[in-house]
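Whether sequence alone determines local backbone shape is best considered at the level of individual chains. Part of our work consisted of pairing the sequence of a single chain with a tokenised description of its backbone. This step matters because it turns folding into a mapping between discrete strings. For completeness, the protein is quoted in full, as a sequence line and a line of structure tokens:

_____
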Amino acid sequence: MTSYTGTPTLSVSTGTISSTTSGVFSSGAWTGMVKVNSGGSGVTITATDGSHSGTSNSFTVNPGGATSLVLSSGNSQIAGTAFL
């Protein structure tokens, strides 16, 4: 629908999406950045605004690398003894 100029809510078929709102569509299209928080194939984004809705073509989201690593034994540890 090339005449659409609304501001719909965004959802994703797997996991969660940030941002859940888009900017204003112009001539039926919107360009912007979103973050999909779950990897997988066959992922789609749906834009919904009242009685209007549209779904993207499917795409693959590859998982990103770890941003941090936390290790904790939960107990005190004595050198030379096995972890519990």
In short: The first strand starts at residue 9 and ends at 12. The CA atoms of residues 75 and 81 lie 13 Å apart. The chain is about 0% helix and 30% strand. The beta strands are 9-12, 17-18, 35-36, 40-43, 45-49, 52-55, 59-61.
